[in-house]
């Protein structure tokens, strides 16, 4: 399938929906490329935006939550010809599997593949990803300067420094009018005081982002600050600087994934704002594990299953899934453990760099053995008042990333360990994807055992345990 957009003529090829499930005439919804400033995929309800993917960063669409957990199964190809036509095409990795994209009559893009065993199509991915999240996935649910979180009640809230533009509508659950600033930005320095920025972690970035060339986050901040129209910025490693001018629309809390968004506020709104958080709760992460579901993707109703199509993001996949294609509930527990350690440390497993260790997991394990685990904690959440809570979060994270599935807790046990006030946690053993002490190659060969090395990630010998 190929989608195109011509900047000169403002024309595009679109994926169109049926009028209903049984009526193939043209329906209300269309899907296609929006390439105004950054490349995104949009679904429109008539002329109005209904859903968007967020910008393409060269690897994923950063407004699609599942892409942070699982790398795209398809290969995305982008081309821009001399005539001003920008095209996005999809090619399927496994050409032996019959796959296609459709836009349903109610505005949902589905990626389907043919299941020979069932003799029917199986949904591999959909734009409205889950029943709990889909209400916030709809475009602009909370209006301008409003943020949506489907796990909160009500789901919409004004960003800090903003207030509802219509209190009566907001109180009645109509958030479309959005929010307005409490204090006007001053733009520039007056008596040594200038506007500042407040960080909102793990967000789906707003619509209408503009990309700027920038070497680092601080330069991105300076570019925004010197532009009086700039209301927000974000910096994504490997992609660069994004800024937003004017109003912000279609913001969503993507915890624990997403992008850190910096909102410009008057200095008086920041008050005595420090970078260190004044609260931390490991239990706030519990709902995240319900979004996982490796086993559900492959529709196995057994305790574990096997697949020949390993899809996902290395660094989050469990060892048995990445190397052998075996998946179970414990695969999701492993991914959750990685995310817990990322949240506590403020560092990404996939982009972790350190002189002595080569991954966040091995670094955490090294500090644990050295009784220096406090060094792992992100300074922005460090604090003596909730240090025990953070340490519990780290220990649960390490228990969740044990190398062998049988050594990891179940999802129910993870929830129990996190939510219980008093519980004695077992001590973790060495995590998966760390450098393990193994029998030397010569000794293994003398014992008649064959050794394997997979992608230089870990080395193991087949033998009885």
UniProtKB/TrEMBL annotation:
Q: Name one Pfam family in it.
A: S_locus_glycop
Which parts of the sequence belong to the Protein kinase domain?
Answer: 18-423
Q: Which GO terms describe its biological process?
A: recognition of pollen
- Going by the entry's taxonomy, the superkingdom of the source organism is recorded as Eukaryota
Q: Does the keyword Iron-sulfur apply?
A: no
InterPro entries from the UniProt entry: Kinase-like_dom_sf (IPR011009), Pan_app (IPR003609), Prot_kinase_dom (IPR000719), S_locus_glycoprot_dom (IPR000858), Ser-Thr/Tyr_kinase_cat_dom (IPR001245)
This protein's GO cellular component annotations are: plasma membrane
What name has this protein been given in UniProt? Answer: Uncharacterized protein
Q: Which intervals hold domain Apple?
A: 187-266
A GO molecular-function descriptor: protein serine/threonine kinase activity
Question: Matching PANTHER family, A to Z?
Answer: OS06G0693000 PROTEIN, RECEPTOR-LIKE SERINE/THREONINE-PROTEIN KINASE SD1-8
Q: Which UniProt keywords apply?
A: ATP-binding, Disulfide bond, Kinase, Nucleotide-binding, Serine/threonine-protein kinase, Signal, Transferase
């Amino acid at each position: 399938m190929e989608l195109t957009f011509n900047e000169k003529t403002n024309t595009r090829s679109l994926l169109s929906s049926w009028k209903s499930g049984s009526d193939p005439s043209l329906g209300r919804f269309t899907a296609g490329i929006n390439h105004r400033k950054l490349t995104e995929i949009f679904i429109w309800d008539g002329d109005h935006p209904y859903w968007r993917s967020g910008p393409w960063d060269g690897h994923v669409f950063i407004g699609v939550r599942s892409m942070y957990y699982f790398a795209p199964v398809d290969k995305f190809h982008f081309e821009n010809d001399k005539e001003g036509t920008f095209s996005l095409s999809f090619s399927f990795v496994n050409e032996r599997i019959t796959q296609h994209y459709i836009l349903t009559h109610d505005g949902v893009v589905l990626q389907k593949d043919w299941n020979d065993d069932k003799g029917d199509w199986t949904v591999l991915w959909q734009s409205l990803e889950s029943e709990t999240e889909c209400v916030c996935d709809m475009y602009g649910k909370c209006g301008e300067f409003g943020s949506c979180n489907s796990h909160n009640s009500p789901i919409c809230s004004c960003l800090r420094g903003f207030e509802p533009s219509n209190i009566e509508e907001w109180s009645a659950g109509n958030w479309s009018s959005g929010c307005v600033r409490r204090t006007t930005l001053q733009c520039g320095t007056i008596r040594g005081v200038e506007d500042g920025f407040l960080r909102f972690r793990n967000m789906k970035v707003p619509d209408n982002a503009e990309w700027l060339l920038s070497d680092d986050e601080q330069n991105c901040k300076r570019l925004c600050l010197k532009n009086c129209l700039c209301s927000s910025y974000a910096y994504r490693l490997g992609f660069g600087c994004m800024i937003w001018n004017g109003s912000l629309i279609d913001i969503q809390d993507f915890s624990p994934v997403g992008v850190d968004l910096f909102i410009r506020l008057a200095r008086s709104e920041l008050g005595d704002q420090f970078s260190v958080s004044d609260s931390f709760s490991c239990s706030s992460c519990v709902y995240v594990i319900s979004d996982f579901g490796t086993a559900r993707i492959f529709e196995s109703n057994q305790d574990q299953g096997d697949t020949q199509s390993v899809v996902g993001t290395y660094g989050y996949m469990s060892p048995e899934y990445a190397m052998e294609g075996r998946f179970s509930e414990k695969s999701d527990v492993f991914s959750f453990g990685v995310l817990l350690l990322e949240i506590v440390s403020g560092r990404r497993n996939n982009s972790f760099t350190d002189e002595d260790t080569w991954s966040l997991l091995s670094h955490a394990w090294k500090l644990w053995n050295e009784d220096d685990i406090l060094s792992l904690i992100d300074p922005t959440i460090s604090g003596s008042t909730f240090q025990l809570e953070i340490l519990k979060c780290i220990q649960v994270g390490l228990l969740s990333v044990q190398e062998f599935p049988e050594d990891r807790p179940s999802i129910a046990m993870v929830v129990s360990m996190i939510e219980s006030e008093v519980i004695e946690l077992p001590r973790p053993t060495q995590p998966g994807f760390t450098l393990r002490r193994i029998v030397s190659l010569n000794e293994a060969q003398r014992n008649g055992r064959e050794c394997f090395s997979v992608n230089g990630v870990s080395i193991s010998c087949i033998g009885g345990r």
